[in-house]
Amino acid sequence: xxxxxxxxxxxxxxxxxxxxxxxxxxxxxxxxxxxxxxxxxxxxxxxxxxxxxxxxxxxxxxxxxxxxxxxxxxxxxxxxxxxxxxxxxxxxxxxxxxxxxxxxxxxxxxxxxxxxxxxxxxxxxxxxxxxxxxxxxxxxxxxxxxxxxxxxxxxxxxxxxxxxxxxxxxxxxxxxxxxxxxxxxxxxxxxxxxxxxxxxxxxxxxxxxxxxxxx
Length: 215
What we know:
It is built from nine helices and five strands. It is an alpha/beta fold. It has two domains: 7-132, Response regulator (Rossmann fold, 3-Layer(aba) Sandwich); 143-200, Winged helix-like DNA-binding domain superfamily/Winged helix DNA-binding domain (Arc Repressor Mutant, subunit A). Strands 2-1-3-4-5 form a five-stranded parallel beta sheet, with helices on both faces. The chain is elongated, with a radius of gyration of 25 Å.
């Protein structure tokens, strides 16, 4: 991990806090970009790297908790709240909506750095999961229509004979499609393919009706 593959965003209207946090992060080898308002942060271009957002609760243009709610549906880094006026309802709301921590000023450098590292690690893991899902979706798009029909039958636990009957094809043809699905999805085992189907949210078939035997 290097200072160039991660970022910390600071949103606080107190210039002294922004400068102090910037110096602290620099001393730990971390890059930081500071903003005096939520609006400036939202409009800024942001590098596509694992990150953390240090967010003050009281801002000149919007409450930090309201900003958290506004950006919840988007792709934003995990938040570490800082505030000089902390209260239990605010901290509960922040954590409930995904904040990594809620620190009341004055807080220790150690507590802040622990929270920041946890946030960046969380963002790194999320990005890895999203990248893996993108690969799975690409593999799924490369399946033929028939292979896409075979996949949910296979992961539902149907025997080859049952799945073939469901689709009205021969068992041999079903086995060929099944093998192609496993290869294209790069699944090491049936259990692996089931996990992939779950991540792709592919509906699992539970039908047991009997079909024909044609190819």
